[in-house]
Amino acid sequence: MEIDLRKKCNSSSTETAAKLKLYSYFRSSCAWRVRIALEYKGLPYDVIPIQLMRKEQFQSDFVKLNPMAQVPALIVEEKVTLLQSLAIIEYLDDVYPNVPLLPKDPLLRAKVREISELIASGIQPLQNLRTLHKHSDDPNEKLRWAQFWIHNGLQALEKTLTECSGVYCVGNDITMADCCLVPQVANAYRFKVDTSGFPVIARIEKMLSEEPAFQRAHASNQPDCPPELYSKL
Amino acid sequence: MEIDLRKKCNSSSTETAAKLKLYSYFRSSCAWRVRIALEYKGLPYDVIPIQLMRKEQFQSDFVKLNPMAQVPALIVEEKVTLLQSLAIIEYLDDVYPNVPLLPKDPLLRAKVREISELIASGIQPLQNLRTLHKHSDDPNEKLRWAQFWIHNGLQALEKTLTECSGVYCVGNDITMADCCLVPQVANAYRFKVDTSGFPVIARIEKMLSEEPAFQRAHASNQPDCPPELYSKL
């Protein structure tokens, strides 16, 4: 049964050492989460940029890979496409557990997943560009909408982190939650959200920004980042 | 360190046999996902209804439990609050693995999580009531918005399931993806989405609707479901 399904998913039945390929866009917070995970785990990968501004995600070749027309998409075992950022990070943690992004304790794992999902379901979908464009043609209204949802989510996140953070989001080890935090905070800055009420988030984000893996994964360090934006991200 | 964190999360360091308590709302698709998981795993739990229409989720006692002011919230080990539906289901699978909701094969696990996340991040946040109210005061525009996002997501889901479904979403075993599918299809019906183009989704949903666990978890079987809605859900 499992072998049949792997065939249906176009997978080989044994893992190969093929290099991972990541369809990414420098400013996509979802692709950014996966880049952090790959960098933190020290996994080599090639980036294939998808220019969201040029609507490359809607081209038929890419929609065949991801019917949701979104980045990230990660190619593993040469030809299997993995989609959805948290599902991809969990896969990487299942297959490459040496540098873990989830704690062993079930309650702490739940907390890491809760924070990740708060961001991935509770904030990001409401402020991504497609949602903004669908909501309004008025740039001011788009900004108000994005600011409302990001502030709403970060306010809840601040309370959660006040309970359960250590040096990082959950305790003193970097986890999947931290992979989600950094790109979401970048979006808060991009949309000029008032983050003054979130000192715990700011403290953790500052610590993470000093980590080499997080620096390598940063939007401004991506091959598809236009030079004029380097200093603005 | 872990013990400190468990203290910070108000947890005891050993698991107790305390009955699980689920803060739920009969029609919340996120709470519904968790009800299915609990019923499918045969775990006894008490339901504490939160009347979203009466805005009980914004009352201070509940916001202390969940700063996002959303259901579900699951109380485990007597006093630890778990939030976010997929994080809760993953916790239940970690702690009660006897009736699994995730396959063992990493690629199949990734597929289950991808489908779950497609629904939990790619559809539900965009069509939930708070988002609808924020988007527009016009009932027709609210309906158009909900229909657009649900149709968009189910269209992608149909393609994914065409590749990887068996009897259920991923192969022939019920998984977390199925816990997500049923409540999302119910929302599609509720918002009168044209689902005629999604035969695979319809086939799987029909199979699942015959499962006793799914029947027990159904919105119409909840203690807070008003009798006049029994036949309409």
Q: What top-tier CATH class of the largest domain in chain A fits best?
A: Mainly Alpha
CATH topology of the largest domain in chain A: Glutathione S-transferase Yfyf (Class Pi), Chain A, domain 2
Element order, helices and strands of chain A? HEHEHEEHHHHHHHH
What is the oligomeric state here? Answer: homodimer
Largest contact between chains: A-B, 62 and 62 residues
Instruction: Give me the secondary-structure category of chain A.
Output: alpha+beta
Question: Which labels suit this protein?
Answer:
homodimer, 233 residues, alpha+beta, Glutaredoxin, Glutathione S-transferase Yfyf (Class Pi), Chain A, domain 2, globular, Glutathione_S-Trfase_N (chains A, B), EC 5.2.1.2 (chains A, B), isomerase (chains A, B), maleylacetoacetate isomerase activity (chains A, B), GST_Zeta_C (chains A, B)
Concise account of the structure shown:
Chain A has helices at residues 2-8, 29-41, 60-65, 85-95, 106-122, 124-127, 129-135, 139-164, 176-190, 199-209, 212-217; strands at 20-24, 45-49, 73-76, 80-83.
